[in-house]
Design a protein that fits this description.
The strands form two sheets. The protein has a five-stranded antiparallel β-sheet, covered by helices on one side. The protein starts with 8 loop residues before the first strand and ends in a 12-residue tail after the last helix. The protein is an alpha+beta fold and about 220 residues long. The protein has helices at about 50-65, 85-95, 145-160, 180-190, 190-205, and strands at about 10-15, 25-30, 35-40, 70, 75-80, 110-115, 120-130, 130-135, 160, 170.
Length: about 220
């Protein structure tokens, strides 16, 4: 008899994880008694090695997204240090973690990048209390417009808010710093349209395969 366990609401799915037998891996969200939100990485695949694969994905979420593992070193659940939901941001952290080749060394991504579209160096500076300002070097022509577009990318990717009507500064509503997360999201904030296309593609791939279909 199959034993079903309620592990929360599924909020994201990688239908074919390319680095381990194309298994499906999902991300589930649940709210605990204290009011904080936790996210569990889970797969119904039953083959040997799945646990180690999930552990690597979780480790990537911790290192790249600045998340915290719940339940000790063997736990399959993570949360943000602030305890807030940040659902869109967590979905993106999960998807990015699943793109990394299994076993690759993990290091946080700094909040700066070369924007190949404009050949500008983009820097995101922490303002404290969850606030961040986007800046860019190079000529004045088009710089403010590009900065505004990137700040808007953070708003869309992580549901951040503009600060005091500014078009170059954004903040998390939890008022907590999430610098590793910002570093991870910066590359995607340069081209939000591509991210939206990817999300639409993932959403169109159907439901998670049943346990009996993943051997």
């Amino acid at each position: 008899m199959t034993h079903l366990v309620d592990i929360g609401l599924r909020i994201e799915l990688v239908s074919m994880y390319p680095y381990f037998h194309d298994i499906s891996i999902s991300l589930y969200e649940r709210q605990v008694e204290e009011g904080d939100f936790e996210f569990q990485v889970h797969s119904y695949a039953g083959r040997e090695g799945v646990d180690k694969t999930l552990d690597y994905v979780i480790s990537a979420m911790v290192v790249l997204g600045g998340m915290v593992r719940v339940g000790g070193p063997e736990g399959k659940t993570v949360r943000f240090c602030c305890g807030s939901r940040h659902r869109k941001a967590c979905r993106r952290v999960f998807l990015e973690a699943c793109k990394i080749t299994l076993g690759t060394d993990l290091n946080p991504i700094g909040p700066s990048i070369l924007d190949k579209k404009t050949e500008r160096n983009i820097i995101v500076e922490s303002l404290g209390n969850g606030g961040y300002r986007v800046s860019a070097d190079g000529e004045d022509d088009g710089r403010d417009r590009r900065i505004s577009a990137i700040a808007g990318g953070f708003v869309k990717l992580a549901e951040m808010d503009y600060m005091d009507g500014s078009d170059d500064a954004v903040a998390f509503d939890c008022n907590s710093d999430h610098t590793p997360l910002v570093g991870l999201l910066l590359k995607r904030a340069l081209n939000v349209r591509a991210v939206i296309r990817e999300e639409d593609d993932l959403a169109g791939r159907g439901m998670l395969a049943a346990p009996s279909a993943q051997k």
